[in-house]
User: Which sequence fits this backbone?
C-alpha cells in the first residue's frame, strides 16, 4: 500500500516461480512490427485521411539500449488517452513509428522534443535522418507521404531478407550479355515498360495543370525481365550504348501509335545521337507541325557536355521543326553556373535532393536569382519524393514539379496547392 495518502498509485509486479524477470526479458530479441505495419497500411490505404505519423529515428543514435526504447514507448503511449487513435510500431532497424489521430500538434511536438533532448543529452546522431533533417524525429501527414512510408518499410524487408547479400553483389552487365538483350529487345513488346510521369504546374489554385508527360522506359523492370542476373546500369559506357539502341526501339514503337500525341504533350528522353539519326527522321516524318509542337526532347546534361557540337545541331533542328528542348539532370551547382539562355533550351530539369534545403543564405540567394533571371527557360524540380521538395520549389519560384510525391497526391485527387499549404502549416 502507499505510505503517503496523496502519493500516486504504484503498479506492483510480482515475478512468479518459473517466470523470467524483466531484466532477463529485455535481453531477449524483441519482436518487430515491420510486417504488421505494412499489412495495416496496405489494408487501410483508402482510410488514411486525418492520420499522422511520427518517425523516431532511433537507428541513427550512436549509442542506445533496449531500456531507452521502452522508455520512449511509454512516453508516447501516455498521450494515447488524449487521442482518437494511437498505435506504436517497433521496426527491425530500431526506429519507432507511431500512427495517431486527434492529438494537438503542439502536444505531439512537445513530447517528441522532450524525447530528442533526453536522448541527445546522452549520445549523438551519426548522420541526418532520411528526410535530410538534423532531427531525431519527423512528424508528417500520412496521406501526403503514404507511398514513401510503404517503400521505407519494404526497404527494411529487403535489407534484412535472405536475398539482401545477393542484391548487393549483382555483377555489372557484360558485353556478351548486352548483345543478347539487344537481340531480345528487337523482338520484344516494350509497351508494358513504357511509363509516363506528369510535370505539373503548382501555381494553379483551381485545378492540377499538366505541363507535359515524360515518357520513359522502366529500366530496372526491363532488367528483371531480360537480364535478372546482371546490373544494366553498373557500367556507364555499356549503359550509354544500350540506351542509344533502346531509343531506336522506343521510336519504332511510337511510329505505330502517334495518335496518342493528340491532345497531350510528351517528353522523350533521347540521346543526341538518336535525334540526329535516321530512326528519328522516320519518326519526325509521321508528325504534323502541330504534333511536333507537343514533343519535348529531354537531353541529359552529361550527353550535352560530351557532345556539345551535336547539341548545337539539335537546337537548330528542333527550332526549324517546332520541337522544344529540356536539359535534364541538373543540380543547384549547374543551375548557378550554367548559361541556360545561351543553351537555348525551353525547360531545365533540376533533381531535388534534401541537401538543397541546407543551402546557406548566400548560396540560396544566388540560386534563386538565377531562377528569376531566366526569361526563356522554365525550371522543373524533379524527383520530389516528399513535400519538402514542393515547398522548396514554391519558395524558389520554380513553377513546375515532378516526382513520386506528386504522383501520390494526384492519385488521391488532391490539389498540389492544397497539399503544399497543408505541409507548410504542419512545418510551422
Assistant:
Amino acid at each position: 500500500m502507499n505510505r503517503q495518502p496523496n502519493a500516486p498509485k504504484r503498479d506492483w509486479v510480482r515475478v512468479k516461480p518459473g517466470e523470467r524477470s524483466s531484466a532477463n526479458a529485455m535481453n531477449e530479441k524483441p519482436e518487430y512490427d515491420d510486417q504488421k505495419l505494412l499489412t495495416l497500411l496496405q489494408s487501410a490505404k483508402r482510410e488514411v485521411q486525418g492520420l499522422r505519423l511520427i518517425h523516431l529515428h532511433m537507428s541513427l543514435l550512436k549509442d542506445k539500449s533496449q531500456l531507452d526504447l521502452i522508455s520512449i514507448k511509454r512516453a508516447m503511449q501516455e498521450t494515447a488517452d488524449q487521442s482518437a487513435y494511437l498505435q506504436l510500431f517497433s521496426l527491425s532497424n530500431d526506429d519507432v513509428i507511431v500512427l495517431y489521430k486527434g492529438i494537438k500538434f503542439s502536444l505531439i511536438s512537445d513530447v517528441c522534443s522532450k524525447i530528442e533532448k533526453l536522448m541527445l543529452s546522452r549520445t549523438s546522431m551519426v548522420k541526418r535522418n532520411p528526410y535530410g533533417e538534423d532531427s531525431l524525429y519527423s512528424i508528417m501527414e500520412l496521406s501526403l507521404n503514404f507511398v514513401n512510408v510503404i517503400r521505407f518499410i519494404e526497404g527494411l524487408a529487403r535489407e534484412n531478407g535472405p536475398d539482401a547479400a545477393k542484391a548487393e553483389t549483382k555483377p555489372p552487365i557484360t558485353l556478351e550479355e548486352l548483345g543478347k538483350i539487344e537481340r531480345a529487345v528487337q523482338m520484344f513488346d516494350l509497351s508494358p515498360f513504357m511509363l509516363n510521369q506528369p510535370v505539373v504546374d503548382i501555381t494553379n489554385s483551381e485545378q492540377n495543370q499538366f505541363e507535359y508527360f515524360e515518357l520513359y522506359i522502366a529500366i530496372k523492370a526491363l532488367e528483371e525481365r531480360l537480364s535478372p542476373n546482371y546490373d544494366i546500369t553498373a557500367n556507364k559506357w555499356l549503359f550509354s550504348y544500350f540506351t542509344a539502341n533502346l531509343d531506336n526501339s522506343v521510336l519504332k514503337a511510337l511510329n505505330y501509335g502517334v495518335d496518342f500525341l493528340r491532345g497531350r504533350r510528351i517528353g522523350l528522353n533521347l540521346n543526341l545521337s538518336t535525334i540526329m539519326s535516321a530512326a528519328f527522321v522516320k519518326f519526325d516524318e509521321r508528325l504534323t507541325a502541330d504534333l511536333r509542337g507537343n514533343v519535348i526532347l529531354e537531353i541529359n546534361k552529361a550527353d550535352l557536355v560530351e557532345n556539345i557540337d551535336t547539341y548545337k545541331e539539335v537546337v537548330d533542328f528542333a527550332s526549324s521543326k517546332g520541337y522544344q528542348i529540356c536539359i535534364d539532370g541538373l543540380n543547384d551547382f549547374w543551375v548557378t553556373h550554367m548559361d541556360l539562355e545561351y543553351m537555348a533550351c525551353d525547360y531545365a530539369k533540376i533533381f531535388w535532393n534534401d541537401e538543397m534545403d541546407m543551402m546557406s543564405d548566400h548560396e540560396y540567394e544566388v540560386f534563386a536569382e538565377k531562377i528569376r533571371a531566366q526569361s526563356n527557360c522554365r525550371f522543373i524540380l524533379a524527383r520530389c519524393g516528399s513535400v519538402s521538395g514542393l515547398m522548396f520549389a514554391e519558395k524558389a519560384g520554380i513553377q513546375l514539379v515532378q516526382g513520386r510525391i506528386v504522383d501520390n497526391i494526384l492519385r488521391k485527387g488532391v490539389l498540389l496547392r492544397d497539399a503544399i499549404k497543408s505541409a507548410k502549416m504542419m512545418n510551422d
